[in-house]
Amino acid sequence: MSNKNRKREEFDEFMGKEMLTQKQQAESHMRYEDTQIDERILRAVREMGYEEMTPIQEQAIPLFMTGQDMIGQAQTGTGKTAAFGIPILQKIDPDNRNLQAVILCPTRELAMQAAEELRKFSKYMHGIKVLPIYGGQDIVRQIRNLKGGAQIIVGTPGRVMDHMRRHTLKMDDVHTVVLDEADEMLNMGFREDIETILKQMPEKRQTGLFSATMPKPILELTRAYQKDAVYVRMTPEEVTIPLIKQAYYQVRRQDKEEVLCRLIDYYDPKRALIFCNTKRMVDELTEHLKARGYEAEGLHGDLSQHQRDTVMNLFRSGRAGILIATDVAARGIDVNDVEAVYNYDVPEDIEYYVHRIGRTGRAGKTGRSFTLVVGREAYKIRDIERTCHTRIKERKIPSAADITSRKASKILKEAVHVAQQQDISRATEYILEEIALGEYSAVEIAAAFMQMKLGDEIEDIKSEKFSFDRKANHRGRSRDGRSGSRGGNRDHYGKKAGQRSDRGRGRSDSRNSHYAALRVKTKKQT
User: How confident is the prediction for the chain on average, in pLDDT?
Assistant: First the structure.
């Protein structure tokens, strides 16, 4: 028996609960109208444009409506908020102004997003108030809002604890508690806060726990604070793989930035996410892409709340088509029309890869993911494939001719659009007048304009070919004791992280010198 299967059986035995698994199906999903959802919620759902439930909603909503404790394992972007939010709204008594449900989220962004979703679902349920509470917001204002009455609180553990200490949150009437993104809350060090909050909740309550992963601390929480919970699981491949085209490119370290830019130019996504492993790399790459003329913004944990809000507003509005982020910062991102995800750095954990590419291919749309691989990082791609049961295709870096052809096609489409939408008669007269005086044809003049838009010719980039010997890899894994389990991979990546960070400093110096040379070259041409 494989280590993975043995761990699965141990999990089932430990939980002692029924496991409900989602199978990939070609047939249509359950419709919201097919359940016992309140007609007022259905009206709001239809207005939001939703018709069919996502797989996690199909399993979780009917179950949660029964009052049963539940554990839901699903990735970000699968409709988890509705999975627990709709049943909660149905249980709320609008005539009772006291607190009745508490939802805990790891970040301010997630708390605000979840609260906004619940407000949309409850649009036609008069008398129900949903209030987000989180750090960084004036607590006096929050207290004033709480005094006005709020049946549902969506908050971060730290701020909920603050209000509990001030006795501005009364838990006597709470009948439902939900931990959203529970694994991330534990990673951020909120375990003691969570346990303190749960201990002060009424004993007779319904507890829901939603998490992308199920590490040991999560299991300990379920055993201590849930009763006969049913485990509903969606596997990563069922969430992310079907609608996402995945590819990786073997590149030389010094060419990573250039390759990234060419992939952006070649596929030309309207909205894209780029992931880096460190805050420093986010800052450097953001600066460099802006210098190249891309509308890019960076997002990581060192930014103030005002800066984060500004960056996200630029990204959501389309004024910045590229968002560069770390894994932790990206947990608060909820944008449905991301067309492509670029892994500038191979993620340090396989589950991060699943979270990353899950940002695209949402709401039934297709998406693309691209991963830049340097040298022995090819081994990590194989680990990801085995764990996620997917195939990540190796592709060749687009050639200089491919890039030029794409640029030319885009320029011509823009020109045709101008010709169709604007009056170009005066511009035509200018061209004809100049041709009459000179020796160039209209086609040659058009070609000259095209060349001006295309810019300098670019050179091809060589792929970094790394020989991947599966047998040698297998023997190496046996010698050092590693297995294909999630924990083993994490330990392996953790060891590599420090080395990668050291090498990052060298990359920074290399890129700075590259851009210095580029600026000198541009000035000379000007």
Answer: 79
- Cβ atoms of residues 298 and 311 within 8 Å: yes
Helix axes 108-121, 80-91, angle to 10 degrees: 50
Q: For the chain, what is the domain count?
A: 2
Same domain, residue pair 175 and 267? no
CB atoms within 10 A of CB 256: 21
Name the burial class of residue 485, with classes exposed (0-12), middle (13-18) and buried (19+) by CB atoms within 10 angstroms of its CB.
middle
Supply the range of the domain harboring residue 59. 9-234
CA distances from 64 to 82, 91, 173, 205 (A): 11, 10, 18, 12
pLDDT of 369 > 90? The answer is: yes
Kindly state whether residues 259 and 229 are assigned to the same domain: no
Same domain, 189 and 299: no
In a domain, 518, yes or no: no
Q: What is the DSSP string of 331-367?
A: TT---TT--EEEESS--SSHHHHHHHHTTSS-TT--E
First and final CA of the chain: distance in angstroms?
67
Instruction: Say whether 192 sits in a helix, a strand or coil.
Output: helix
Helix (H, G, I), strand (E, B) or coil at 494: helix
Q: What are the tens digits of pLDDT across the range 175-222?
A: 999 999 898 898 888 999 999 999 999 999 999 999 877 888 888 999
Where helices occur in 24-91 by DSSP H, the ranges are 39-47, 55-65, 80-91
d(CA 169, CA 322): 40
Asked if residue 436 is part of any domain, the answer here is no
CATH of the domain at 54: 3.40.50.300
The dihedral over CA atoms of 92, 207, 144, 123, expressed in degrees to the nearest 10, equals -40
pTM of the entire predicted model: 0.54
Residue 30 sits in the same domain as residue 132? yes
Same domain, yes or no, for 266 and 155? no
